[in-house]
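Recall from the previous chapter that SMILES is a line notation for molecules. Here it describes flavin-adenine dinucleotide.
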Amino acid sequence: MKPVKFDYIRAESVHHAVRLLDEHDGDARLISGGQSLGPMLNLRLARPGTLIDISRLPELRRIEANDREIFLGSLVTHEMLESCAHPGFVFDAFRSVARDIAYRAIRSKGTVGGSLAHADPAADWPTLLLALNATVDIEGKSGIRTVSVEEFVVATFTTSLEFNEMIIGVRIPVPSASARFGYFKFCRKVGELAEAIGCVFDDAPRGVRRVVAGALSGPARLLPPHTELQLDHINTAILRRDLRDLDDSLDEGHAHLYAAAIRRAIERSTS
Ligand SMILES: Cc1cc2nc3c(=O)[nH]c(=O)nc-3n(C[C@H](O)[C@H](O)[C@H](O)COP(=O)(O)OP(=O)(O)OC[C@H]3O[C@@H](n4cnc5c(N)ncnc54)[C@H](O)[C@@H]3O)c2cc1C
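With both inputs in hand, we obtain:
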């Protein structure tokens, strides 16, 4: 199938893109890497009157890090993170997650901002960024607002973005040197979206411990804080119960799968 007809405008700046979104009053969509929107247009699941191309705005392609936080512009691609040379534990996490996303052609085009805005429950960045306690910078008509990833992704394929707002980038607090991170996903085939994701982040000196289950029937979710991060202490029955409390569509077999993903994320966790 082919997309329905649409107008195409290349945005010259972030302000220009936001103005265009506002002027089109909900009938325009941004396109960045096109790796999710392209198929949706072809299948006619998305029928915007106008596409606003933001893929050539260099200010959205920045990767910056200082000793407090890391900033990833919304146009940073999976490939840029797979191959970036920044030192540190968070960038190690980005590299290891990015290299297992789909395949090279998709990684070279697909962006962090597009992945968050698309809000597919099985996508990697929303799960990882939730675990790392990231926030999302959003630009709209009245300026920039910042929300947590939990507030941003509200349901399957649904975010808290208004029709005339766009993601500028995400901010990740830099953890302490002894923090640990682990990630594991089950996929039916290499290159496919995940069946179940487990992600753990433990920054004991800062009192932060986040265990996340991704690829649920809805957005990635934080498990209750009592979830232990020592393998010897994990009570898998409680873990399965917590998972089923978070997602009541999970049967016992699927709860096992998510619990196994979390166990493996803990096994793999390193600082
Ligand atoms: C075969 C296949 C396998 C895949 N496997 C994986 C996988 O294993 N893991 C994974 O995480 N992902 C996977 N993906 C998804 C892929 O990573 C896409 O890159 C990502 O979902 C969307 O990024 P994009 O830049 O292409 O966004 P686009 O397709 O351009 O846009 C997606 C949506 O986001 C909106 N949007 C884009 N940029 C912004 C912005 N700055 N502000 C506000 N809204 C914006 C668009 O309007 C659109 O609604 C896969 C995709 C395919 C086709």
